[in-house]
Specification:
GO terms for molecular function: N-acyltransferase activity. With 492 residues, this protein is of the alpha/beta class. The chain is built from 15 helices and 14 strands. It is 45% helix and 16% strand.
Length: 492
């Protein structure tokens, strides 16, 4: 039994290393296959086996959370790992002789992932199998079924590979091999030929400003004015040629909450941004943090027009648990947990995720929101032609979160069929094309302005129309049908 637990840990670590920043995506299939080869013989052993597998995968992949709150990291890692423990119990309830075992396993573990995408704390869709495949040939399948379908495919291929070891006849073995080969060959083609939008014949010359500065710093330990100065310095260095007719900028994007003031509309920072918008003759999308009251603050992206007026505003809806708000704050304070690093909670917004600037509609997902496919799609439903992800990864030591965010941006660009602009104060900033290619990626802590002509696009993908719910319903119905069929077969 101890050997099986060791196998679970190794399998989980293989998946962890398939994730960015390591990014060895084929290891995800190896890890799933290794996990699926073991069949503990009791529900308790199955639960422990599945939990240890997921913990070895999620603990490294979610290590960024440790730097925000150690208690939150431990709670989240154990809770989400336990979901896969329950999935392993359900899978193990099927006997080895059940011909559909290799399908039930992927369904249960995909549903476990679907649950943690949304519950608790609003969901924590990091360190996911979908993120691990952002650079793989099958990533375009998200145009059809989003991250859940991609997750299921990775699990299904892994379970099919594992079934080769346990097949009873050469015919069953060949059938499993055939299914695996068909999946690997057909899925990339399906994703490539699926609808993915089209150019509308117009482009924007977009500048993303990364001010630079140290990593691993918290807002409570940082002089907010220093951050503004870095971004002003970077913006002022934009070459004069960029304002000519040939290279004129159409839009400038500053990262999430680089301006931290009581009220932006009456601040000196607004005056400074206005001056740059007038100099470059281009509207700015600026990330601001404002005081709401003694308990809350707001996190928003605001349009500053070339004439100095303020345009649209979008307040962040999805907040980072244990980063921008503390779940169970009262309970954690009562047991002495350190929550003073987040003294106030962000107040969630309720607006549609779009901004109007540069004579077009822009879908905006602020930082954490890029990990949620539905948030990006909300703007596309409103006719957005471009996707923008202003973010702030400066609070995190290392690059686990930042590199997973780039991978998530690739998935969102594929799912929506739009160009995506990601901009961060300390990295990573980049442009991502509708086919998931990354351009002009910056380094960590460097001061840099990246500029690119991006095509505005219209149209929607299959996933944009369907969302996640149809796939969740199909998976639940399929799982119940297979479990009932297996029970009848056993009783017979």
């Amino acid at each position: 039994m101890k050997k099986q637990y060791l196998v679970a840990i190794i399998a989980g670590l293989l998946i962890a290393f398939s994730l960015p920043p390591w990014g060895w995506w084929p290891l995800a299939y190896v890890g799933v296959a290794l996990f699926a080869t073991c069949k503990p013989n009791s529900n308790r052993a199955r639960f422990m086996f599945g939990t240890m597998f997921a913990l070895a995968w999620l603990a490294p992949g979610m290590a960024w959370m440790w730097f925000l709150t150690a208690p939150g990291y431990v709670i989240a890692a154990l809770l989400f790992s336990a979901l896969h423990g329950l999935a392993a119990v359900i899978t193990g309830a099927v006997t080895d002789q059940h011909k559909h075992r290799a399908v039930i396993g992927p369904l249960t573990h995909t549903l476990a992932e679907a649950l943690r995408f949304s519950f608790p704390f609003g969901g924590v869709p990091l360190a996911t199998l979908a993120i691990s495949q952002a650079a793989s040939p099958i990533a375009p399948i998200v145009r059809v079924g989003g991250p859940l379908l991609l997750t299921y495919i990775v699990l299904q291929i892994g379970f099919l590979l594992a079934s080769l070891r346990h097949t009873e006849t050469p015919r069953r073995s060949m059938r499993a091999v055939l299914w695996a080969v068909v999946a690997v060959a057909v899925l990339p083609i399906t994703g490539l030929i699926a609808p993915h939008g089209k150019d509308i014949g117009r482009s924007l010359n977009v500048a993303a400003v990364q001010g630079g500065g140290p990593q691993g710093t918290l807002a409570i330990n940082t002089n907010s004015r220093d951050v503004v100065i870095r971004h002003l310095d970077a913006t002022q260095k934009i070459a004069v040629a960029s304002t000519s007719n040939e290279g004129k900028l159409d839009l400038v994007v500053w990262p999430e909450n680089v301006i931290d003031v009581s009220s932006f509309s009456s601040s000196i920072e607004r005056t400074e941004v206005e001056a740059q918008a007038a100099r470059l003759n281009a509207p700015f999308l600026v990330g601001i943090t404002e005081d709401f009251d003694n308990r809350f603050f707001t996190n928003a992206q605001v349009v500053v027009n070339t004439d100095g007026s303020l345009g649209d505003r979008y307040d962040k809806v999805r907040r980072v648990p244990f980063g921008e708000f503390v779940p169970m704050r009262g309970l954690l304070e009562a047991v002495g947990a350190p929550v003073d690093r987040i003294p106030r909670d962000a107040k969630a917004g309720h607006d549609t995720a779009i901004l109007r600037a540069a004579d077009t509609t822009i879908a905006v997902v602020i930082s954490w929101e890029v990990f949620f496919a539905g948030r990006a799609n909300e703007g596309i439903e409103q006719g957005a032609t471009l996707l923008v992800n202003p973010t702030n990864g400066s609070s995190y030591t290392g690059t686990i979160l930042q590199s997973q965010q780039i991978a998530s941006s690739r998935l969102r660009a594929l799912e929506t069929g739009r160009w995506l602009v990601q901009v961060s104060p300390t990295g990573f900033s980049a442009f991502v094309s509708p086919d998931g290619q990354v351009f002009d990626r910056t380094g960590v802590s460097e001061q840099r302005v990246i500029t690119r002509q991006v095509q505005l696009r219209s149209g929607r993908t299959i996933y944009s129309y369907l969302g996640d719910m149809p796939f969740v319903v199909i998976m639940i119905a399929s799982l119940l049908a297979l479990l009932i069929a297996g029970r009848r077969t056993t009783q017979a």
